[in-house]
Amino acid sequence: MISFPNAKINIGLSVVNRRADGYHNLETVFYPINIKDALEIVEAKELLFTSSGIEIPGYANENLCLKAYELIAKDYDVPPVHIHLHKNIPIGAGLGGGSADAAFFIRLMNDKFDLNITQQSMDAYARKLGADCAFFLKNVPVFARGRGDEFAEIKLSLEKYYIVLVMPPVHVSTAEAYRGVEPAKPAKSMKELIELPVKQWQETVRNDFEKSVFTNHPKIRGVKAALYEAGAVYASMSGSGSSVYGIFSNQIKLPLLEIDNVVYYGV
Ligand SMILES: C[C@@](CO)(OP(=O)(O)O)[C@H](O)COP(=O)(O)OP(=O)(O)OC[C@H]1O[C@@H](n2ccc(N)nc2=O)[C@H](O)[C@@H]1O
Ligand SMILES: Nc1ncnc2c1ncn2[C@@H]1O[C@H](COP(=O)(O)OP(=O)(O)O)[C@@H](O)[C@H]1O
């Protein structure tokens, strides 16, 4: 059985305050986009994980799909499976690819083996695997707060726009990004700001990570500026970076940037 986990972008992100558990409360909007991995499970003699496509850093046995399998196998009598992941979503890009794989894996196991896992239990498994993981179970635009794991559905459609995603050849660590921000309560909640017309977002909808990440990695600032020069109605870094997206009213001709090793996606 096969499924196609998709990525997300963050539209706006406020780091509100530091929590007692060392994490930060944030406010952001998660919006699903059409860049997808391919994830397949086949019943097998023993548990096996293989991958192709973009190389995944770290050990294969630490892949979030295997962690999700372990959680399910503790509670349900499931056979071993061969998991194959074809990785297409850029990694460490603020696109939530690992969390998407884990969430889709939970659903895939449920469907393949008729486990009848309740929505609530799937949600609980997902939360153990990553703050944004549960978002991918429903996969609809949400306003997120808390650790980025408390969701309220919102009405937001960018269907009439063209989204261009650029992956600069720079790695930003999430922990480094959080260290660079001075938390502050936003004057206006992202939930209200997102209701403004997209053409007003440039002045109002901000990602708090950009200031310090752009200072440490000016190339990423350059990508955002180039997207505006190319006519974007709105452009921003997604999450803690390093990917940057531009929202355009019209289809644009690529390539629009003259930076080495940059990957473009139209989504
Ligand atoms: C920035 C966001 C926003 O959407 O996404 P991405 O850019 O990764 O997609 C998330 O908050 C990324 O959350 P997540 O990807 O789960 O972070 P983790 O790997 O769990 O955390 C890495 C480190 O970031 C810091 N951290 C993370 C989440 C949070 N709400 N507060 C934090 O302070 C902690 O220092 C933590 O040790
Ligand atoms: N299925 C997976 N796909 C991508 N990365 C994974 C996966 N499982 C575990 N990881 C680990 O998670 C880290 C962050 O991955 P990713 O979800 O792409 O980042 P981001 O949080 O920026 O969206 C990677 O460096 C990798 O070591």
Describe the structure.
One of its GO terms (biological process) is terpenoid biosynthetic process. It holds the Pfam family GHMP_kinases_N. ATP binds at residues 90-100. It catalyses: 4-CDP-2-C-methyl-D-erythritol + ATP = 4-CDP-2-C-methyl-D-erythritol 2-phosphate + ADP + H(+). It comes from Hufsiella arboris. With 267 residues, this protein is an alpha+beta fold. It folds into two domains: 2-152, Ribosomal Protein S5, domain 2; 158-266, Alpha-Beta Plaits (2-Layer Sandwich), CATH 3.30.70. The protein has helices at 64-75, 97-112, 119-129, 135-138, 174-179, 190-193, 201-204, 210-216, 218-229, and strands at residues 2-3, 6-18, 24-36, 38-43, 48-53, 81-87, 142-145, 150-153, 162-167, 234-237, 244-248, 263-266. The strands form three sheets. The chain has a four-stranded mixed sheet, with helices on one face. A four-stranded antiparallel sheet has the order 2-3-7-8. Helix 1 runs parallel beside helix 2 and helix 8 packs across helix 9 (218-229). The radius of gyration is 19 Å and the shape is globular. The mean pLDDT is 93. It binds 4-diphosphocytidyl-2-C-methyl-D-erythritol 2-phosphate and adenosine-5'-diphosphate.
